Fold this sequence. Notes:
With 199 residues, this protein is an alpha/beta fold. The protein has helices at residues 14-23, 44-50, 66-79, 96-101, 122-129, 164-187; strands at residues 3-9, 30-37, 55-57, 84-87, 106-110, 133-140, 150-157. The chain binds glycinamide ribonucleotide (GAR).
Amino acid sequence: MSVPVGVLISGRGSNMQALVKACAAPDFPAHIALVIANCADSEGLKFAHERGIKIKLIEHTDFETREAFEAALHTTLSEAGVDIVCLAGFMRLLGAGFVRVWKGKLINIHPSLLPAFRGLNTHRRALESGVKQHGCTVHFVSVKMDEGPIIGQTEVPVYETDTVDTLSSRVLAAEHQLYPKCLQLVAQGDFRSLGFEGR
Ligand code: GAR
């Protein structure tokens, strides 16, 4: 059985591309049913469209409240029959209502080794703090930002010569490997035992 996945993006969409490519393998337990962007200039939409994936632009600026924006997201995902939602560089905070409805089916990738460096500018903060290991995390989304049960993490080294650019490229390459592996685990239902409902 192949689980239908919805991917939410805001910009470049390179993690979404990594998920699309992984899903192309015949034995992968999920497929991308829909890609939603909240910004009209999101480059990732073009990539998805060219591969015949259903795309939808839902701009948060078109809605008076966050609840109305999230209701539109929810309706679109539900109508597409989506069963797992992957946040892939989706730069809007999702409210408690949306998160509760999708609990155990809503996953996110974050560019740090959580719980270190929640929030933005993770690479700059990692360099400033002097850590020797940095990386990325895929986790279930909970009501608190960048929390929720961790599905997988990848460490990368931090070198003395690193800049934000060199470090972020190393982490991004790790993200592209990690996210498909974690989606595979969730699609297979391997996280039921965590008590986070899961699939
Ligand atoms: C990725 O590094 C992702 O981890 C990060 O945004 C980038 C999106 O790149 N997400 C967050 O910071 C979420 N808090 P992409 O659009 O090329 O996938």
